[in-house]
Design a protein that fits this description.
Strand content: 25-35%
Structural class: alpha+beta
Helix content: 10-25%
Strand order of the largest sheet: 6-7-8-9-10
Shape: elongated
Order of helices and strands: EEHEHEEHHEEEHEHEHEEEEHEEH
Number of domains: 2
Radius of gyration: 24 Å
């Protein structure tokens, strides 16, 4: 629940802790708004069309969180979030582990010569915003929006991940969701990565932090008698070229820098009736696109590969005319 409500039609904030809602010049304001909301509910009008939004933490975070009103038997007035994840935003303060991840992402990005900041709002319209945990400014206008969901979150996790990922992508931000929960990492609503559950002081260290899920190496192979895999399409050898994604561990800091450099990219891969989402090298992505255009030929390897997934991004594409910015020594995640 929240005590501050934004009325979109009236353009005012309503403080439910005050008898007059903070507007003494508007008599019977609560009765008017509450009765209207109950009338909308009786007519099955969606909560998102009832003019009431969270005017507190959610609005400050740049999130549009629709609400409805409730009156308890003891007379207590309540505004209830339509979505559980918006409600959780009020109850769950940032954990030390979450903050350690934010600071580590910024440090890794800055070390690689990229700009990064935490809790970034990106305008999506006249009144809309996208709130990003940590936003990394990459090569050629590329923006990577890191979102961290740890084991302290609700069992069911964020329920609007797909819609948030789509919204971020629509506005030019590549979503990168990271977790320490195996059940989150098995979801395919976005490209999740996972590390083991660690305390904040370990996450904050400068040593290696391994990503154990979410990155794949694509193995391209011809479906003939020499193939190591079964044909995914038929019971026989079809003679076509197929691809098998193979999990590979990578280092978290390298992943931050390589996504910012555009050397590691998100893809969707169909396997029968299922769609899987994960990260691959840019070269593997390009080869997969070649394969989708022609299943009869192995996609060619480029003359110069990006290098193994765990190494630093190559600076070969930089020049004196386009140098990376000098690393910052500030800590933008700290208030």
């Amino acid at each position: 629940m929240a005590n501050i409500v934004w009325h979109t039609k009236f353009g005012i904030h309503l403080d439910l802790t005050l008898e007059d809602l903070g507007h003494p010049n508007l008599p019977n304001l609560w009765t008017t708004i509450y009765d209207t909301d109950r009338l909308y509910a009786a007519r099955s009008i969606p909560v998102s069309e009832r003019d009431l939004q969270c005017g507190g933490i959610c609005q400050e975070a740049g999130v549009t969180a629709w609400m409805y009103l409730r009156l308890r038997a003891n007379g207590r007035r309540e505004a209830v979030h339509e979505r559980a994840e918006d409600e959780e935003r009020h109850a769950a303060p940032m954990t030390p582990e979450h903050q350690a991840y934010q600071e580590r992402i910024v440090r890794a990005a800055v070390t690689g010569g990229f700009r990064a900041d935490c809790e970034v709002r990106t305008r999506t319209g006249r009144r809309g915003w996208i709130q990003t945990d940590t936003l990394v400014q990459g090569e050629s206008g590329l923006r990577i929006g890191w979102e961290v969901q740890l084991s302290t979150a609700d069992t069911h996790g964020p329920r609007s991940v797909r819609s948030r990922a789509i919204k971020a992508t629509k506005h030019g931000i590549t979503p990168a969701w990271h977790t320490d929960r195996a059940d989150y990492a098995r979801r395919h609503d976005t490209q999740w990565t996972r590390s083991d559950k660690l305390p904040a002081h370990v996450i904050a260290k400068a040593g290696d932090l391994r990503v154990v899920s979410g990155f794949r190496v694509l193995d391209f192979w011809r479906c003939d008698v020499r193939a190591l895999y079964r044909c995914p399409a038929t019971q026989r050898r079809c003679g076509k070229v197929h691809v098998t994604p193979k999990p590979r561990d990578v280092l978290f800091d390298d992943l931050v820098r390589r996504t910012a450099a555009g050397l590691v990219v998100p893809i969707k891969h169909r396997d029968g009736a299922s769609t899987h989402r994960f990260w691959v090298t840019r070269i593997d992505r390009d080869r997969l696109e070649d394969l989708n255009n022609d299943h009869t030929a192995l996609p060619p390897l480029p003359d110069h590969e990006d290098g193994p997934a765990g190494c630093e991004p190559s600076p070969a594409h930089l020049s004196a005319d386009h140098p990376r910015p000098a690393p910052s020594r500030t800590h933008p995640c700290r208030g």
